[in-house]
Amino acid sequence: MIRLYNEPSCTTDLIVIGEAANALSPELRQRYREVNWRGAIDMRNFAVHGFFVVTYERVWQTVTGVVPAFRGQSAAILETEIPEGGES
């Protein structure tokens, strides 16, 4: 099977997303309850601590099925929390 993505890189990206979500304040996560913060954090934990059982099909499913919506939600939060040209 030909793979059109870099498997370790995608896994690393999911780890970074989960780390970033975990670093957000509980208050911010509470303000934006519609975002699946727990899912991002759990995926990070699974990728880090269960690395030898991570399937790349699962990683790719997450990258293509979950990350696009998460990215859109994150972009909207950034626009709300840090207006263009401003600081938080």
Mean pLDDT: 88
Overall geometric form: elongated
Number of helices: 5
Compute the number of strand runs: 0
Task: Describe this protein's structure.
This protein is an all-alpha fold and 88 residues long. The protein has one domain. The protein is built from five helices and no strands. The chain has helices spanning 7-23, 26-31, 37-49, 56-65, 67-81. Helix 1 (7-23) crosses helix 3 (37-49) and helix 1 packs across helix 4. The longest helix has 17 residues, at 7-23. It is elongated. 14% of the residues are buried. The mean pLDDT is 88.
Task: Draw up the topology in text.
Blueprint: H1 7-23, H2 26-31, H3 37-49, H4 56-65, H5 67-81
Helix pairs in contact: 1-3, 1-4
What would you say about this model in short?
By secondary structure, the chain is an all-alpha fold.
